[in-house]
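Render this sequence as a predicted structure.
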Amino acid sequence: MSASWAYLYLHPETDPDTDRTVLDRGGIRTTLVAVPSVGRAPEVAAALASEGATLIELCGGFSLEAAAAVRSALPSKVAVGHVTVSVDSVHAAAAFGDSVG
């Protein structure tokens, strides 16, 4: 395996240990993980980093504050990406984050 990354997305009433999909082909491992709340994301991201993920991407439902909490839970060698939304969608994205976070 030459690369490993993960994408965390919000989905209520999920278990990040079991509610995940792993694609491992062509030397790249991609792990998609549902987290029940933004509060669980830092620990899930840290576990994924300890398993070898060097990039953690966060869905747009995560606030900047939540993204910062994930960043602070990881070693500096692990990059954190954060999907952003267009300006005209900010209110809808915030409402979504409030409904699941």
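Summary. The longest helix spans residues 90-100. The helical segments are 41-50, 64-72, 90-100.
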